[in-house]
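Subgroup meeting minutes
Present: P.N., E.W., G.H.
Scribe: E.W.

1. P.N. recapped why we're keeping a running log of single-chain structure predictions: easier to compare across weeks, and new members can see raw inputs and outputs side by side.
2. G.H. added today's entry (248 aa).
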Amino acid sequence: MGGMALVRKPGPSISEGIVTHIERRPVDHERAAAQHDAYVEALAGAGWRPVYVPRADDLPDAPFVEDTMVVSGRLAVLTRPGAPERRPEVESVARVVHELGMKCVRIVPPGTLDGGDVLQVGPTVYVGRSARTSDEAIAQLTALLPERRIVAVELRGVLHLKSAVTALPDGTLIGDPACVDLPGMLVPEEEAGAHVVVLGEDRVLMSASAPQTAVMLEKRGFFVTKVDISEYEKLEGCVTCLSVLVSD
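Output recorded in log:
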């Protein structure tokens, strides 16, 4: 595996990002910037070439670039985020995707979709019904990806589907059964252990805040790269939120 990793550096207004399900805590911009650099370095070390979307310092949540697009092969589905103040993030992402030569389509009003609600596992695309993602948008995504199997998923008490469940390289789901009902889920040792980025056939990226889950996955034969994203976790962010991977 390998390819491109679309990322966006945090701006000084990151501490003003939206918080929905947790208590607001101060975010240190300089520390967030350093953590972002280390995160990108980890992706690059696993063979993913960083492609930087231009900074958007007036948009606090802009580093959570995952929410702006869903990639299926060489098709980029540009989203329409559920939080209106996040919708301006999409245009700069759209320009970069066009420059990369990818085909672009869009979720259109009245549909709303956050990329964090979309989990792709082989031919199946799970989409969370959340405060940010509507049934209308799920119907649009189904029409835009006719070759994929779209499965709508109910959520409890989390911002996005991938706040509750992700998938390991072998397709095994890892998630919190208190938040989502999907069969065959591996249950992580820590809440943050439900969040993995697949870097390769036997390699995953995880938050340093899930050390016991990392050990559990290593025992299953996976190589685990751990990164500290504590400043982003204060904003309900996780390792998946900070990039969009586009395979070669």
